Amino acid sequence: MERIKRIVFVFLLSCVMFPLSALCEEADGSNACDYDWTPVMEAIIEVESGGNSRAVSGNSAGVMQITPVLVEQCNIIMKRRKIKKRYRLSDRFSVAKSKEMFLLIQSYFNPTNNVEKAIRMWNGGLHYNLKRTQRYFERVMSKLN
Q1: What's the rounded Cα separation, in Å, for the pair 70 and 105?
Q2: Is the CB of residue 37 less than 8 Å from the CB of residue 112?
Q3: Rounded to 5 degrees, what are φ and ψ at 98?
Q4: Which 3-state string (H, E, C) describes 33-86?
């Protein structure tokens, strides 16, 4: 219960400090963050790191095991959207910033909010392979259900 309270607090604090809607705004003014990704993010966190914000595995780090390439991609998206904020590699260790990066990636590459695509893409990249991401997809879905 204490863990849930802490997660909710961090999420609410991040909403106050930096509105997530600014990250998700499309060029046409539409907002791609209307979908509630919280359960998916929590399931991914559980599978990726068990909730350990200091987890490191190879180039991946943080609760969502974010790679340097993903951080760079987020910064490219923000530059295209004319958002001045930029992420650093150290931001991977912040739960709130990791979630922001997840939302940013989904808003850009998954505007239809397809949960299966989101999960597989998080594991296998933009051009994921169904067979290679199947086990990961099943593990995340088991945490969702």
Answers
A1: 8
A2: no
A3: -65, -40
A4: CCCCCHHHHHHHHHHHHCCCCCCEECCEECCCCECHHHHHHHHHHHHHCCCCCC
Per-domain residue ranges of the chain: 36-144
Q: Given this model, what pLDDT does residue 124 score?
A: 96
Tell the CATH topology of 36-144: Lysozyme (1.10.530)
Cβ proximity of 102 and 123 under 8 Å: no
Has this prediction a pTM greater than 0.85? no
CA dist 5 to 1, 9, 12, 45, 125, Å? 6, 6, 11, 16, 31
Residues of the chain with pLDDT below 70 are 1-33
**Angstrom distance (rounded) from CA 104 to CA 86:** 12
Residue with tokens 């997660």: 7
Residue 66 backbone phi and psi in degrees, to 5: -85, 135
pLDDT digits (tens, 9 = 90+) for 109-127: 999 999 999 999 999 999 9
Rounded (10°) angle between helices 95-109 and 38-49: 120
